[in-house]
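Why does residue order matter? Because the sequence determines the fold. Keep that principle in mind as you read this record.
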Amino acid sequence: MQRHELNLIAQCCFHPRLATSSTREKHFQRLRYIKQLGLTYYVFPGAAHNRFEHCLGVGHLARLMATHLKNAQPHLGISDQDIQCVELAGLCHDLGHGPWSHLWDNIFIPKALPGKKWRHEDASEMMFDDMVSHYELGLSEQQVTTIKALIAGDKARCPLGTEKPFLFEIVANTRNGLDVDKFDYIARDTHAVGDRGNLSISRLISSARVIDNKICYDIKDANQIYELCYTRFSLHKRVYNHKTTKAIEYMIIDALLAAEPYLKVANLVDKPDRYMFLTDNLLSKIEESTGPELEEARAIIERIRTRDLYRIVDYKVFPYEEKDMVKQRVTPAEIANAAKSGFLEGVDEGLVGELKANHIAVDVSVLHYGKGPNNPLDDVTFYSKQQPDGKQWLSSSSCVCSVSCSGP
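Structure:
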């Protein structure tokens, strides 16, 4: 990552436009206490950044992108109010994250509340509604509806989705995943874990152009988008799914599930006044308790503190097409049965006799470049200097030919 890109990340926290009333309210300030990368901080000490900084960055980049499109293509009719809505959507898009970010909605809630369909995006809208109802933010009812639609990336929920659908590709791009949310977290996370990426956010923003109501990019910047997709894959493989991070995650889950019958924190996801106080300090609340009902949870947390962590037993890479089979057949119960089958050599029979399914955790990490088994570039439209309003696509077999000529 080049020096000016690091400066851009720093500027996200101090852009004067971001000194709006919404960032001063406790709904937004809560994000100071939720780690962006959850428990990755226990493995990569530099990954200490929070959702607060990320949301400031996304709001900043959202304004930059919308302002660039307005200035570069005045005929699009982008208004200052449109830009304000896009910026506020960027600022507030992660208001609903729970403790340790994705650990909460991807693992804990499905285990604590089986069958409940809940996403942090839903909670972001809930928290935004609660913030609007409690404070005078100067937003009309139509603006509130528009901002929530922009957070969800759902064009069908407000008139702006029909008038200027391309604005819905800035914060939450459901068409191809290229949005300023991804721009910020990839640049920020890469920097935090000490990697030197080659992604240029400013170049991508200045390259953006609207054609047929879709945000397109200069064909010369195709490699930047390849770099973005590869960096995402690399972060998931090496950082987000690091084996030690996963071990600590499952220990936290076990501690939370042991405490849940007494704390009942999972049921707070639909109560904004209580959800307000659910942050990463939940671990400290359990740890400082003295009652016998939380003794099991405290014991697990003590193991984390003393680095007596769960151990990885084995891992295997499967083709993407087999992910459903793996989820169905590679389960704790199947592994426990296989261990007791008598067909495994070198097994401690005493330990195997005590082995139960709840002693085993199976984590299936599905890795891809942003669009599952598909090439994410298939949904990205490009233009060229020769055809600024034309449309071009790249496939995985595309090549770029450069011809130069020098005089005598």
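The radius of gyration is 24 Å.
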